[in-house]
């Protein structure tokens, strides 16, 4: 049996660990609340932009902001996979990569990875990727312009990302970028108004405005996918910290019992020695 | 016509009736932040053509904004300035919306 002093030290260390995991758990929980709020705000903003866009474009298709700027497109499809920057994300990145690779054909598909963990996962599977972007550390004003420039070169883009369902449930999700934008736009209420050059002044031109709006909406859709992935990663951290916190509490309880037993054993030993001593003196 | 919900009564009220003849409603916001919302007398910005002002009763107008300091003159004669890198401005029926960071 360990000495009481050793157990007291272990107990103190375990209590500190419990307090630390509790703090990390709190931070993750706070970040989740903040990001959820941002996603809601961003959706409202998107809907207002979508209103304006549908009123101007009057039925033409979503062209990823290339109505007036002729971007040479290749016939490949682009896969964008959003993973964690570090390795501390549970198994959700592996699930995401494995799922993406089921539809991957190197002759028809190029891959762009956001987040370093994804590059490691692909390298382990011997799959090459076209470009890597660091997962943005900040949660607002995410600059996705370099990614949009890549998106505009492809006929179609699918985004694979992690989706937060609840604190205990995380999903992997795949969306086609153009379809996703159209789908999100359906959430906005139709007003029936038409914006055209007879009723509005456009500067520099209506096509330039439509292109800009399309790029803006891709920007928001991609930023939201990144935010949702970060939300899922925070939830994953929250789960890990909750688990560690519960384990440390259990260990503290076990250590308290061991400490009491150890102290009692020491006292019993001393008592035995005293009784034996007294017996010897009496005889 | 612009309208809003009155916080005290919960009723939908028209803002048109509350605006003076030289005033209009302005909202300046980004996906995650509202920078300004209120009744103003003018707003100055910059587009590809050059600097311009929007006053009350302006024609319906949509423009892409260039980097500039947005100057707002409020209805209570105060000035506000907001630095912008890019944005879109929509003017419609005395209601102006500036979308930033897009």
Write down the CATH class of the largest domain in chain A: Alpha Beta
Cα shape of chain A: elongated
Order of helices and strands of chain A: HEHEHEHEEHEH
- The tally of beta strands of chain B, per DSSP, is 10
Biggest interface between chains: A-B, 26 and 20 residues
| The CATH homology group name of the largest domain in chain A | ATP synthase, F1 complex, gamma subunit
Low-confidence stretches of chain B: none
Query: Order of helices and strands of chain B, N to C?
Result: EEEEEEEEEE
In total, how many beta strands of chain A?
Answer: 6
Measured between the Cα atoms of the first and last residue of chain B, the distance is 26 Å
Q: What CATH architecture of chain B would you give? A: Sandwich
Short description:
The complex is a heterodimer of chains A (283) and B (102). Chain A has helices at 4-57, 92-102, 116-124, 145-151, 177-186, 206-282, and strands at residues 74-82, 109-114, 131-133, 154-166, 169-176, 201-203.
Describe the overall structure.
The complex is a heterodimer of chains A (283) and B (102). Chain A is of the alpha/beta class. Chain A has two domains: 4-21 and 241-277, Helix Hairpins (Orthogonal Bundle); 25-239, Pyruvate Kinase, Chain: A, domain 1, CATH 3.40.1380. Chain A contains six helices and six strands, in the order H-E-H-E-H-E-H-E-E-H-E-H. A five-stranded mixed sheet of chain A has the order 3-2-1-4-5. In chain A, helix 1 runs antiparallel to helix 6 (206-282) and helix 5 packs across helix 6 (206-282). Chain A is elongated and about 120 Å long. The mean pLDDT of chain A is 84. Chain B has one domain (19-100): ATP Synthase, domain 1 (Sandwich), CATH 2.60.15.10. Chain B is 0% helix and 63% strand. Chain B has strands at 3-5, 12-14, 24-30, 33-47, 50-55, 61-65, 68-74, 79-84, 87-92, 95-100. Chain B starts with a strand and ends with a strand. In chain B, 26% of the residues are buried.
